[in-house]
Amino acid sequence: MWCIGELTKEYRRRMYRILDLYKLTYDPKNPKICIDEKSIQLLKDTRKGIKMKSGAIEKIDYEYKRNGTRNIFVAVEPLAGKHYSKVTKSRKKKTLQYL
Question: For the chain, which residues make up each domain, given as ranges?
Fold first, then answer.
């Protein structure tokens, strides 16, 4: 509810429409597909951990080098047991135009 300011009649109408859609049986001619995307920052460790002494915890430095960003796109057709994913080489507009 953090992103919904108010539960209006319009919101409820749309919500119940989606819930009714989920109740429908599987039809390969009308698949139900869920789509999501996420951007990720790629990080590279810059230092190796310090070897453990007997009975001590390994010490690892938190320093890292930024190694670019990517987008992950996922489409899932749960009733058919299918999923599709695409990882972009970068997050630049030029890269996204060719998905």
Answer: 31-96
